[in-house]
Amino acid sequence: MKSVSLMPLCAAILLAGCAGSSAPSADSASWYNPLSWHWSALNPLGWFASTPRVTEQGVGTITAATPMTETAISDALGGNYHLRKGMRGEGGKIITFWQALRDDKLKMVINGQHSVSQVVVMDEKVSGPDNITLGTPFSQLYREAFGACKLAGAGEGSDIRCQAPASQHIWYQFSGEWHGPLGLMPDNATLQKWRIDKIIWQQ
């Protein structure tokens, strides 16, 4: 009787066993699903989204040439704000404007007729020249109000607006504690403690 070598048979059994043990089970397998990938992560605008800045030209990419339309303003602000249209009476006329909101809080008011003429910024994340932001004290920018500041106007209480140093289009609005009569400019000693609560770009 011929003897049969057991080596090939053992090798076949071992290979079969290894193949069976290495196959992933339905319960333990972790599969890559290409449909679960968030393709928006590849959008560079999402990586480098930045807060707009106030410059001599405007706010972000809003300029005097920006049409007073929702699409144009939203695009100029990078789509980072929710826009809401409003109207008010002024000088016997109906004036339309846009409000820019983030997290349901008012951050900007954009004024103009056919194109933007003014942007009032109330967003603490937006900065002006030299990284000036809301909350900056009057004393950091001015020694006195004379020659640079005026009362902010109707509806603004005792607030004052001061033209930004070396600027033709940027104004800072200051507010603070004041016990004097409306319509009277607070004294310089009082103003030293006031802080910026609005940054205004004006065409």
Mean pLDDT across the residues is: 81
User: Approximately how much helix is present in the residues?
Assistant: 10-25%
Query: Distance N terminus to C terminus?
Result: 109 Å
> In this structure, how is the largest beta sheet organized?
8 strands, antiparallel
Q: What's the CATH H-level homologous superfamily of the domain at 129-202?
A: protein yfey like domain
| H and E order | HHHEEEEEEEHE
Q: At the third CATH level, what is the topology name of the domain at 129-202? A: protein yfey like fold
Structural class: alpha+beta
Ranges where pLDDT stays below 50 over 5 or more residues in a row are 6-48
Task: Kindly report the spatial arrangement of strands forming the biggest sheet.
Answer: 1-2-3-4-8-7-6-5
How many helical elements?
4
Describe the structure.
The chain has 203 residues and is an alpha+beta fold. Among the domains are: 66 residues, Sandwich (protein yfey like fold); 74 residues, protein yfey like fold, CATH 2.60.460. 15% of the residues lie in helices and 27% in strands. It is built from four helices and eight strands. An eight-stranded antiparallel sheet has the order 1-2-3-4-8-7-6-5, with helices on one face. It starts with 6 loop residues before the first helix and ends with a strand.
Give a brief rundown of this model.
With 203 residues, this protein is of the alpha+beta class.
